[in-house]
Amino acid sequence: MSNNPRRVALSVINDVLNNDAYANIALNEKIKSEHLTELDKKLVTQLVYGTISKKITLDWYTKPYVKKTKKWVKNLLAMTVYQIIYMDRIPTSAAVDEAVKIAKKQGDQRLSGFVNGVLRNFTRAELRSFDEISDSTEKLGIQYSMPAELTQKFVTQFGFEKTRQIFKSLEEPSRASLRVNTTLTDVETEFNKLSQEFDVEKSELSSTGIVAKTGHFADLLDFNDGLITIQDESSQLVAVALDAQPNDKILDACAAPGGKTVHIAEYLSEQGHIEALDLYDHKLRLIQQNAVRLHQAEKISLTKLDARQSFEKFGAERFDKILVDAPCSGLGLIRRKPDIKYRKETTDFVNLQKVQLEILENTCKTLVSSGTIVYSTCTIFDEENFQVIEKFLAKHPEFEQVPLTHEKADIIKNGCIMLTPDAYHTDGFFIVKLCKK
Ligand SMILES: C[S@@+](CC[C@H](N)C(=O)[O-])C[C@H]1O[C@@H](n2cnc3c(N)ncnc32)[C@H](O)[C@@H]1O
């Protein structure tokens, strides 16, 4: 018998919002372990991502009726209000009845009465208007479900209007972004093939990129055979910036799951080589899987190593090029991973910057003279981007910045690629290139 999809969704939402689980991992595990029909799997996915991404807004809607209650009850109310407001095909009465049943089963008679009362009050009243909120920054945060501290951070760096544009674009569904492995096929051939089945477009940003509004590309034969891979258009610009030459020896300091490692490898001949590092065995295995699938495994060595030990491991002047695709807050990924915005560690910019600088500091000693470092992050905040580079260059006069260029001039800021998620509907992303004199 199939399990109740709302109960399954609530347990994932509780794990993510109350116990800091990652939404994608918690959801995948639950979907695998519970008996659900294909239709229910879709419903669970929508309830989980919809409720998590709009949690602050949803709580605000029921706030007048809820003084204090348990966290899971608040999550249940939010998930139900999400269905009532955003899912036209679910009748309000069905959403409320299901919530009351869950409250009775997971709590008791009193809690189910409370849930029933709140939801009846909510459905009887007119939907609150955001115009009730007088402070414009607070209003923006509540309207787009962004925590207050983070909203303030966006407004401080980008200004009010740009922040609104970014938040608005984060509400739109993510697109699927593919990269063609040009060592095995060409963009035209893949584009024509994919066009027969999907509504695809060529990427505006990456010459080897193809984008689609929807589609399950990981099930395709060409994905399995390594002719195409899934990679955001922004990430596709990193290997291009590194400009690997066929015989280069390259250090990929923070490599897992290896999306950029395999892309760089595609530029190398048999004489070229990449040392790919990461902290965890299970993550190194992901690089290996990618490398095998894209037919690049012979050019890549995997080492479990803290990149801050690169010099001790590899010695001086060992690499022609280095990629530091640094561990970061990931705040450029909110559209695809909405739970990121609620994580405490994502706004610990001091500690993140410290680690980012330490990685650059150590790896740079392994670079040959005239060698280049590309530093990239999937975040758009200065602390993890421009400030890191300013501090690094201030301490290392032997390095200088190499300005990056792109035919879309609006993605270049101070010689770096800086993609905000609203501009081309990509992840938020940053790339800078440095050269050792
Ligand atoms: C942004 S992700 C890299 C994504 C990867 N370059 C790609 O394109 O698929 C950062 C990676 O750095 C790893 N990492 C974090 N701290 C590290 C360190 N001190 N040394 C090496 N790797 C580290 C993380 O485990 C994570 O896999």
Provide the descriptors you would attach to this structure in a database record:
four-stranded antiparallel β-sheet; Alpha-Beta Plaits; N-utilizing Substance Protein B Homolog, Chain A; 437 residues; 4 domains; globular; alpha/beta; binds S-adenosylmethionine
The coarse overall form would be globular
Q: What's the total number of strands?
A: 13
Mean pLDDT equals 96
CATH topology of the largest domain, by name, is Rossmann fold
Question: Which stretches are low in confidence, meaning pLDDT under 50 for 5 or more residues running?
Answer: none
Judged by helices, strands and strand pairing, the structural class is: alpha/beta
Helix content: 40-55%
CATH superfamily heading of the largest domain:
Vaccinia Virus protein VP39
- Helix segment count? 18
Bound molecules: S-adenosylmethionine
Computed over alpha carbons, the radius of gyration is 24 Å
Distance between the termini: 67 Å
Number of domains: 4
- CATH first level of the largest domain: Alpha Beta
Task: Work out the strand percent.
Answer: 15-25%
Taking the sheet with the most strands, its summary is: 9 strands, mixed
CATH architecture of the largest domain: 3-Layer(aba) Sandwich
